[in-house]
Every structure is written in structure tokens, then in C-alpha cells.
Amino acid sequence: MIGKGKSISHTGNAINYAVEKHKAELIDKHNLIGETGKEVEAEFKMCQNLNGRCENNTLSFVLSPSIDDGEKLNDANLLGIANEFLEKMNLSSHQAIILKHQDKKHKHLHIYVNRIGFDGKAYKDNHIGKASQRVAHEVAKSKGLTCARDVEELNKENTKGIRKEIGQRMDQLIKDHKPRNFDDFKDLCKASKIDLFPTINKKTGQFQGYRVGFDQFNFKASEIGKKFTLSNLEIAFKSVKTLRVNKGFSNGF
């Protein structure tokens, strides 16, 4: 099971979207009467008005069991998962609405929780995403469900051979052709049927890493090998530049 969480400010719109989506079902409510986004938002505001300093005053969570697990889980099971998650997150006493979505056999939960308690205090949302992942893992373990971490470790083991082959190919390209920069290296890899997909930081717009595609596989550069991370590649490119300059070649990139 995968858990995601974040703080939001657009409570009504978010809940309306979740409620009105095809095959959405209300599983449960905590300390609430209303069911629509507008109704829930109005009830949330009764507590939120006690704390005018908090802007992102609603917590939005998504809990996604594996497809196989989801097929076996009924509404009572899902409610048990949601309630245990909220308890472990120390949010059982907060207002909350729990909704089920089922998209193409993928059953998952949306949970919207008032970040402001009845005492007017704001729930601390530091690292809320990481906390959601950790608690979802704990709940999955306690319920005997497939854990995202276990799947990740299994995938690593099953793809060890293909990652080794990709690494050997990329390493040979560097040794044979001594690319001077990432663009050179990307072109060389493409010619060898390996695609490199740059990762751009959304806030800064800067190039911060890349992923590696081969056949139907897609990996982080670090999963291929530490020597292929962007920082280590840049060191390798600089050494090529120094070598060319020392031999009297142009140092232009």
C-alpha cells in the first residue's frame, strides 16, 4: 500500500472533485454532518476560524492498496485501514471525511482531515508526505497487505541483471568515446538504444538529474550505478575536458 499526504487550502474544490468523481463512495465521516465539498468546508471553518494564521488548513491523504489487495477489500476493511491510519497519524479526534475511488480496478481512499483541532491548534505538517508513507507502511504490515517497500525491493532484485547490462553498456560508451558533456553522452546512449530523461527542478528550472530508459524498463540513474549519477558524470566530463586541454585541443564545450 502506498500513502501520500499534503496540506491544502482549497478544501471545498478538492472534496467536490473527490465526491463527484465516477464511482466515488462515501465510506465514513468523523465529527461531520455534511457530505458535499461546500458543506464539509463550512464545518471545517468552524474550527479553522479559531486559527487565522494557518493558510493550508486541510490535510489531504491518499491510501492506495495494491490492485490484488484492493480486489479483496470491502468497505469495512477499507474503513479499518483509514481509521488505523488516522489513529497512527494522531488525527482520530479531528474532523474528517473518507471517500473510496475505484478507477479501472484500482481501489483507493481519499481522506480529507481538518488540520485545525477543536482546540484551535494546527496539526504540525512538517514532512507530512514522508510521515504518510511511513504510517501507510505500518498499517499495511498490520493488515497483512502488500507493502510498497517490499515491492520496491522485489523489483530491484528482479531487475538486477538488466540494470547491470545497462551499466556495462554506458560504462563502455564513456571509455570508448569520452563524451565531453551530458548532451554528448545522451546522444551516444540513444545510438545504443538507451534513453536518458533529464529531471528538471520545478522551482528553479535547473537540471538536477536523469532517469534511464531501456526497452520497457525505466530506472533512476543511481539504480544503474553510483558512477552514473549526474554529479559523478560531471566529474568524468571535467576530466575529459582537462585531458583535451593538456593535449592542446580546444576546451570549448
Automatic annotation (TrEMBL):
Residues 18-145 form the MobA/VirD2-like nuclease domain. InterPro entries: Endonuclease_MobA/VirD2. Pfam families: Relaxase. This is MobA/VirD2-like nuclease domain-containing protein. It comes from Labilibaculum filiforme.
